[in-house]
Structures are given as structure tokens and as C-alpha cells.
Amino acid sequence: MLSYQLHHGLDMARADPLGNPSLLEAGERPLERPTAEPGDVKNAIVTREGQYRLMTLSEYSRPGRVTYQAQGQAPPQVKVSLVSLGEQGDRLCFNHGREVYVYEYKGIHKAPDLNSPLMNNKGSNRIYPTCHDFNGLSSKGDNLTVLVGYSDGQIKLIDIDPTKKEEQTKGLNQERLIDKTKVTCVRWVPGSRSLFLAAHASGQMYVYNESLPCGTTAPHFQPFKVGENFTVSTSKTKSTRNPLFRWCLGNGAAINDLAFSPSGTQLAVVTQDGLLRVFQYDTMELLGVARSYFGGLLCVAWSGDGRLIAVGGEDDLVTVYSNEQKRVIARAQGHRSWVGAVAFDWYLEGEACYRIGSVGHDTQLCLWELPEDNLVPPRPRVKRRSDPLQLVGTPACPRLDECPILEPLICKKIAHERLTCLIFRPECFITACQDGYVYTWSRPSSRTPT
Asked: Which residue spans traverse the membrane (predicted)?
């Protein structure tokens, strides 16, 4: 049975220069303390279902394994994208330095051929890739479609045909007339072959149709929908051009991550001002809001049933938000630095609890369990006079003594550099760290999901 503790050790009054909204980009600020203590890096993790093991032969990295050193700037965060092609297997994309690589992903079964990437797309000296996403609908057989965002605001749509060893590239926002800031996240709209979202460090995100051109002049926008602390605008053009819509969130704090719900109907967005916003995507309605304990939120993930959303960020916590009850229902404490990625293990759901994983800048992997008991609404408290300026002590941001604090099932150091990605798969999970390595961990053989 999972144990809980009400934690009072965090000092709510401690100085935090990141507590105010910031336009600085996530992952490019110095840490206030060392990321991790010296110690052995673990290659096996034991949980109640058995042992997870690092598959050393299933390690992906850039050819030659030469570590990229950014000159005069923070290195770009390593991110990983996956797409399943059915009988053709899976494909894996990751960025490191100025380059984006696509490999055939062989999971726990075979070692990759690092000298034969399906794609190796390079940026320039001052422009580097920051995010990417496969289009699962248009990627068929050996043909792949991958979207890549760059540090200067450009977006590239790359069609890959490995049999012909050809790449067809289409550029969007090439003249940087739409947005000049870093692209922080790109996501294809679920169920669409042509629509995608691109989020920027400016606090704005745009809806593109990859089959349409961009204008030759800076777009002019007119209001389309105004909501609580957000606006949606459309372009003033005689002919339809990109972008189709512009979303402006809050006061301009950078958008750090976004994720569609499993049903594809809702959108969760986290920003540098510490806010999680949940939208009904098609109607552009704001459904709910949650707030970090302090600092920016860096990552977001949905549970497999769409009932819960987990976020992590600069408060070193994983916060769990109930999409049904519109409130924070738990916080998970165990990391000693920023949480870089969070994910639900969909393949272990349905056993009266949810499994959540997170990795952080402290080089640690943490696993948590959230029982169904936490989903029961609490007894109503005596109502106090509402204060519109109150930030802590509300359903969107309860005090630490007002919601359960989850203790980690395990919390292990698994890398030498900060961890940036966590993806759960049916027979394994995948992690990535800042030095450009992508690792595969096999699930316990006695408990491999089917």
C-alpha cells in the first residue's frame, strides 16, 4: 500500500528568482544547486512487478558518439519522438546539437546501426533544432513525415523516402515574419494529415496547414475568440494563408510544452509563468487551470483514460491535476532539481492505481503510484472569503498540507547528465539525456504487457 506524508519542509517563503513570470526559455537558466551527487549510475531498477534493465546494445546516439559543445550558448535540450508503422516497425527521431537524426527503432530485440541513420538533417552554426514530431497518418511503409522546429523560429516539414535516399523539405516561417522566437514544441493535430500546432518562447502558438503557403509580409491578425487570460486571432488575408490561428496565452511567458489528450479533443499547455491550462481544442474553451508551487512548468502528460494530467517543473515537484474535478489532487516529491519530463505508464493502468514516471535535471528517474482513493473529492471545507489575488491555497494550487504528498516507489540515478525525455512503451521505456544518448530499458519478463 502506498504511503503518504504531509510535508512541511519546503519553505514557501524562500527566495526564488523564477517565481515571477519570465520570458526566459526553459532549460537555459543556471541551476541554483548541483544537479546530482556523485554516485554510481544504475543499470537495473527493481519494482514490485520485477526488474527493469538497461539494454546496453539498444543505445542510440549520433554517429561517432562525439559530444556536441554549443559555443557561447546553452546546448539545446535533447528530445525524442516515435512513430509506429505497423508491420514495418517503429521509427525514432532525436535531436542533438545542430542535427536531427531518424533511425529504425529496434527496441529490446536488436542493436541499432548508428552509422546508417534514415535521416541526418543539420542546422547552421547559430540555428539548431529544438523539437520535432512524426505525422502518424502520413507516415506509411518506408515513407516518413517529420516536423522540426528551430531555435530561430523556423519550421521544417521533412518527407523521408529511405528507399530512394531522398528528403523533401518544405520551410515555414522561413523569413521569421510570423514569430522570431524559439520554437519550443510542435504537435500534429490528432486525426489530421495537414494541421499542426507550433508553440514559441514568445508565449504564442500557431495553427498551420502544411499544404498552405506563408505570406510574404508579416501577418495582421483580427480577434476570433477572447477568453479568460487568453485570445485567439485569425489572419487578415484575402486568400487563406498560414498561420490559420494565433493563440496568445497570459502575459507572454514562454510556452514550454503541450500535449493532446488520448481522445484528441482536449489540449494541455504549460508555460513559464507556472500555469497549466486545459482547453477544449475544437471550441477553444478554457476548461481548467492549475498552478505550480513556484517557478515555471516545463512538461505535461495525460493519463491513458484522460482523467488525469501530470506536470513537472522548476519547483522540483510532479503535480497531478484531475481533469474531472478541476483541481490538483496530489503532488509527488523526490527530485532534487527541475523535472524535465513526465509520463504516465498507460500499460500499467487499470489496477486500482496510476503509474507515473518522471526524470529530471538531477539525473534521476522516479516512479510513483497514485491510488484510485486520491480521485475521491475531499470533504468541503469552511468557505473563506474569495481573494482573486490569492495564488496558493486554492484548488488550482493547494498548500502542501492540503493535498497528499506522494513518496516515490523508486528514485535512482540513471545518467551522468540531466535527463530530458521519458517514454513508456509496451515492452520497455525510453530515456534520453543531455549528452545525446537515448536509452532503452526492458520491462520485467514476468510482467511484459501484451
From this structure: none
